[in-house]
Design brief:
single chain; mainly alpha; two-stranded antiparallel ribbon; 2 strands; about 0% strand; globular; metal-binding; secreted; hydrogen peroxide; peroxidase; Peroxidase_pln
Length: about 375
């Protein structure tokens, strides 16, 4: 075990480390060799663990991870997105949402893509209430098929989800961000975990803060990632309680919701609390454009969800929203990209963890 760690920790080439970390590794290696020679077994094992930590901390994601194993992978994915998304631009928001829902349950490991199988007899995240309106699964399958034709069982579904989310937003005129790759696919998908980990649109600020913090995301990330609501649509059940029975009281409307906006929603969109099919733009009048309009609506008490309104109940998040509105779209795009890259690193599986699925909807047999 230690000999393997010494020569190539966790399968990572030491030469890929930064000069500082490479120096640290080599110094530790010298100490391990010295201790092994003189029989200091206890200290020897401790340093073996330290060497493992050094290796493990760098056995993470990297840009162009497939440069050697499948050099055309990212181009194939980009070409597929550029060919199909213009014909269904609303799918960009769905694919962006798909990555969020993937990363918040067991990390960014493609577990949200798995189907129920008779072999496991286990239901998956797909059936959980937060995921029942997700779209884009067949699109991901199409991308995977195209990549598999070039490089069988090399590119993970988790990486495809991350790259497709970015590329589809770019095609619709949104920002570009870096997507380090090297994720591996999970083999477990549990609907109860999706219900627990995905913040519902009815969340208050405390719930949002706790949920994001549990994933290593801060309040700035919360605001920026909420900005994804600048594109796409939602269904009435996600917010109709704000219109008809807020806090469980029939006829009560959510006080922070602009009354004129609420009336318009009830008269022209969700005419009944039982409406489960009507779709509503999250950023009315600008739902196909990645811009700052969503944040302006939130400040004007016209955020569609209770979770949108919750962002104004914290001095910190409210202040940051104001900064974004007063700033430039270029600034928001850059900051949003950083938050997406950060989210894309949540609890990733790398190295020998998980697997590379042959088909995104099923674990390998």
């Amino acid at each position: 075990m230690c000999l393997y760690i010494l020569s190539d920790p966790f399968g990572v080439n030491v030469c890929s480390y930064s000069s500082k970390d490479r120096y640290l590794f080599l110094q530790l290696q010298k100490e391990v060799t010295k201790m092994a020679k003189f029989g200091y077994l206890g200290n020897f094992l401790v340093l073996c663990i330290l060497l493992g930590i050094v290796g493990c901390s760098h056995a993470q994601l990297q840009l162009n991870f497939y440069a050697k194993s499948c050099p055309q992978a990212e181009k194939i994915i980009e070409d597929y997105v550029q060919k199909h998304i213009p014909n269904a631009p609303s799918l960009a928001a769905s694919l962006l949402r798909l990555q969020f829902h993937d990363c918040f349950v067991r990390g960014c490991d493609g577990s949200v893509l798995l189907n129920f199988t008779s072999r496991t007899k286990n239901q998956t995240e797909k059936v959980a209430v937060p995921n029942q309106t997700l779209r884009g699964f067949s699109f991901i399958d199409g991308v995977k098929k195209a990549v598999e034709a070039e490089c069988p069982v090399i590119v993970s579904c988790a990486d495809i989800v991350a790259l497709v989310a970015r590329d589809s937003v770019v095609v619709t005129g949104g920002p570009y961000w870096k997507v380090p790759t090297g994720r591996r696919d999970g083999i477990i998908s549990n609907p109860s975990e999706a219900l627990t980990n995905i913040t519902p649109p009815t969340s208050d600020f405390s719930s949002l803060q706790t949920s994001f913090a549990s994933k290593g995301l801060d309040l700035k990330d919360l605001v920026l990632l909420s900005g994804a609501h600048t594109i796409g649509v939602s269904h009435c059940p996600s917010f109709s309680s704000r219109l008809y029975n807020f806090t469980g009281v029939w006829g009560k409307q959510d006080p922070p919701l602009d009354s004129e906006y609420a009336t318009n929603l009830k008269m022209k969109k969700c005419k009944s609390i039982n409406d489960n099919t009507t779709i509503v733009e999250m950023d009315p009048g600008s739902a196909s454009k990645f811009d700052l309009s969503y944040f302006k609506l939130v400040l004007n008490r016209k955020g569609l969800f209770q979770s949108d309104a919750a962002l104004t109940t914290s001095a910190t998040t409210n202040s940051y929203i104001n900064q974004l509105v007063q700033g430039s779209l270029k600034q928001f795009n850059a900051e949003f990209g950083k938050a997406m890259e950060k989210m894309g690193r949540i609890e990733v599986k790398t190295g020998s963890a998980g697997e590379i699925r042959k088909h995104c909807a099923a674990v390998n047999s």
